[in-house]
Amino acid sequence: MRNPRFGESNLGAVAGAVVGAIGGLFALSLPRAVIGRDVGLLLATSLLNFVCWLISGVAGWLMGGQLGPRLGRAMRAQRGEIVGGVLGGLVPVVLFALLGWYLMTPG
Q1: Which runs of consecutive H residues, i.e. helices, occur in the chain?
Q2: Is 6 domain-assigned?
Q3: Is 70 buried (19+), middle (13-18) or exposed (0-12) by CB count in 10 A?
Q4: What letter does residue 9 receive in the DSSP assignment?
Q5: Rounded distance, CA 18 to CA 21, Å?
Q6: Number of folded domains in the chain?
Q7: For 18-54, how does the pLDDT look when each residue is reduced to its tens digit (9 = 90+)?
Q8: Is residue 5 one of the residues assigned to a domain?
Q9: Taking the model in full, what pTM does it have?
Q10: Does residue 48 belong to any structural domain of this protein?
Q11: Is 104 left (phi over 0), alpha (psi -120 to 50) or beta?
């Protein structure tokens, strides 16, 4: 059993990239929309959302590609690799959502 190379293509990397990119597209503006109670605010900062989409997609690919095969090997199932990729893709999404929440709250 070998460890996955950094940035190699595998099922966990694909799952992480999909979750990271889709979540990153709205993660930064989600707290603003929740606090403002307006769904239209999700698309108010389109340039920053695009940057978060790029960063989250790449970070999800890298983290999902490392975490997915390891979790799949531990669970001895291909579903474990997908779950690991999803968890790896959620990390940058949650970080950008927390950053958005920090920027929106006064303090």
Answers
A1: 11-27, 30-36, 46-75, 78-104
A2: no
A3: middle
A4: -
A5: 5
A6: 1
A7: 999 999 999 999 999 999 999 999 888 889 999 999 9
A8: no
A9: 0.90
A10: yes
A11: alpha
